[in-house]
Amino acid sequence: MENERRSSQDHSHSLELECTMPEIQPLKQRQPQFTWLGVDFACLLAVGLACLLFKLVAVPFRRGFYCDDDSINKPYKDSTVPSSVLYSVGFALAYLVISVTEWCNERNDKRSGKRCEGVPFKIGPLQLNSLLVRLCSLFVSFAFGGLTTIFVTDIGKYTVGRLRPHFLSICKAPSFVFMNCSHTYILDDVCTGDPSLLREGRLSFPSGHASFSAYAVTFTVLYMEAMVHFPQSKFLKFFLQLLVVQLGVLCSLSRVSDYKHHWSDVLAGLLLGVLIAVLIIDRVLQIFQRDRNNKTVSENVV
Q1: Which of 11, 229, 261, 262 is catalytic?
Q2: Residue from 11, 13, 166, 209 carrying the catalytic annotation
Q3: In whole angstroms, what is the distance from residue 39 CA to residue 220 CA?
Q4: What is the pTM of this model?
Q5: Domain extents for the chain?
Q6: Is 261 a catalytic residue?
Q7: How much is the pLDDT for 296?
């Protein structure tokens, strides 16, 4: 009798625990508030205006040079990858990967019944579904990181004022400056070349092409690592990531072969771009944390 009483008590206690256990609810998106949207937009606008001011009014640090410095005596060449192509391809590639991935994940999760309903965003009569809200968040976050990369790069460029490898070819100093040159350090403004080219010729460190391409590539690759899934293939995702990385590597290396930057400028730009991309992915978007939470929710539901 004593054993039956204990077993019945244990059974009732387990039933009470099951009843009191809260149901595991998947994570839901919270509707963004207009106040914080305004704050985020102000931050984005501030960084964009800072980048614009650097381009329009900032003056790079004017440093001298040695008359026999071979590191800045390379011929001038046009860029293999112009800035317009760099930014266009960088934004288009990231936005394309994000759009296709989010649409495919939304479709697959609806079919499997795993995805939770997101909170739509309403602006008066206009209502954005959860997919559009996620796309807008990712697009704006990528743009903010890209502008931040350009801004930090410009701080280095205009503060250091390092001369590009082709500086002497655009300087066009009088011939007497280089006559009987014996490692003389020239501080005077002896250049007579195009002022706009001379201004750009003092913006070698760090490489803007390298920093932005590294940012765009790293952001895209990390996003693919967290959000793209090919269960049937072991190599497809890695192959696609490798193609994306090659674009950034080729763009960065072209800056050395075009005599636009020293190798150390490119290396510094690469490190800067990678750092900012990791911060945006991990600290701002928290993509890997959300991916882990979604996997945990899916396992608990199953």
Answers
A1: 261
A2: 209
A3: 26
A4: 0.84
A5: 60-301
A6: yes
A7: 54
